[in-house]
Amino acid sequence: MEQNATNESFLAKVKTLIQMHKEGLLGGEIMPEDALLGIVAEVELPDVLTLGMALNYQRNAYSLWQSVAQTYRDERTRWVFQPVAAAQSSLDELRAALLSYRVALQPNRHPEIWQKVSRGIVQSSESGDVRGLLEIAQYNIARLKIIMQVTHKADFPYLSGPKIFNYWLYAMETYTGVKWKSRELITVAPDTHILKATVTLGLCPSGVLNGSAEDRKTVSEAWESALLGSGLAPIDVHTPLWLWSRAGFPPLSIQSGGIKRGQP
């Protein structure tokens, strides 16, 4: 990415990929979190997304969010998505509710994480919910990072990590209508699919596929640098990259006015 011509060629590929996503050429019309649509009340989406996201690691995302939707639909277990209630409940009660529809897969660790995050939300917010936390941060991503990744990092296990934190910011924007300040600070969430797609595009060498914390940081920084001044925020390419990888990397081409443009 050292020469302007090379960077322009790379950005052309990225824009083609984004357009392919918009035109439905990458599949994935239904994303994992779509399971919540039409089920979870709009006012409660921030809490449900945040708590569900706290366990969204090393497991099938579609299965997780189906479980979250079932747990919310059941009035006997819906209370787990209320941070104050989850924070104050006994661990046994929380465990039973989270295991009912397999939101929790690990009977000890997952309920403990859920309760710790709930308490972190309550302690970081005057209103005891996620909206209150965002208001404390004034919807400023830089401030939110300090709260969740520095000052209160211990209260947000996994959610404070760069992969889930950045995807959480994206999901909040997509599903709750949050308008972030400095949204360019949302980086790609470098999971396995993002790493593979980044290498396939030639932005990073194949060594990053090892997936270490340093590799993921390298990928995030590479996207920030590559998109600087392009008008695109790194998170804008996350879903197209993710779907492109899941689809097996089909050729980068779209039809526009009968003319095919863009090549891998």
What does this structure look like?
The protein is an all-alpha fold and 264 residues long. It contains twelve helices and two strands; from the N terminus they run H-H-H-H-H-H-H-H-H-H-H-H-E-E. It has helices at 4-22, 45-53, 61-73, 83-88, 91-100, 109-123, 130-136, 141-151, 162-176, 192-200, 213-227, 238-246, and strands at 254-256, 259-261. A two-stranded antiparallel ribbon has the order 1-2. A hairpin with a 2-residue loop joins strand 1 (254-256) and strand 2. The model is unreliable at 256-264 (pLDDT under 50).
Summarize the structure.
The protein is mostly helical and 264 residues long. It is 52% helix and 2% strand.
Overall pLDDT score: 90
State Rg: 19 Å
How do the strands line up in the largest sheet? 1-2
Q: Share of helix among residues?
A: 40-55%
Distance between the termini: 16 Å
Shape: globular
Largest sheet: 2 strands, antiparallel
Unreliable spans are 256-264
Structural class, by secondary structure, is mainly alpha
Which series of helices and strands comes N to C? Answer: HHHHHHHHHHHHEE
Number of H/I helices:
12
How many beta-strand elements?
Answer: 2
